[in-house]
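Allow me, if you will, to draw on your knowledge of protein folds for a short while. The matter concerns a single protein, recorded as an amino acid sequence and a row of backbone structure tokens. Could you please explain, in whatever detail you think fit, how the structure tokens follow from the sequence? I remain grateful for any guidance, and I place the record below:

…
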Amino acid sequence: MATDTNEYAIPASDPFAIFETWFAEARASEPNDPNAMALATATPGAAPSVRMVLLKGHGPDGFVFYTNFESRKGGELAANPQVALLFHWKSLRRQVRIEGTIKEVTPDEADAYFASRHPESRFGSAASDQSRPLPSRDVYMERVEALRAQYPDGSIPRPAHWSGYRVTPHAIEFWQDREFRLHERRRFTHIDSSGWTSSLLYP
């Protein structure tokens, strides 16, 4: 007879607090990029696309990532603000799915994050026409070198087309692996200013 245990039970509490706990455990256990998340977008015609990005901020106000607004995903986000995120922490055998809408971060937030990056990352971002055809890698590296020469101290300003989005979630789902496919899933749905409701789902 199958048995169950509450050892890994997902509580019916604040989803942001649960995420904070799981994310802290992922930072302690994942060997690479615990903040990596799949970002799914869609065109107005409903054609989907997905790629990995990095979570750079989170809290009750949402989940933040940064990108080139002129990239493919930037164009899709401008046309359709609905997104989905997925975290998969293999070391913990856990997933978190988030669905919501995006809103641009403030210029001050974007400036502060861009300034916090390594100068080489700033040069690489500013030199890239992300998602557009590139004749050869030499062309890209020449543009990087030109920026290094222009800003030898690394103080390159944030390009106007490079900023961030905050995903405001309307649903957050937590998935915990268990033996013999007896997994646990709990989905939280935002109601209104009164908060969230949740229910278990069949795995």
In short: The CA atoms of residues 46 and 80 lie 9 Å apart. The helical segments are 15-29, 72-79, 107-116, 119-127, 137-150. The chain has a mean pLDDT of 92. Residues 15-115+160-201 form a domain with the Pnp Oxidase; Chain A fold (CATH 2.30.110.10).
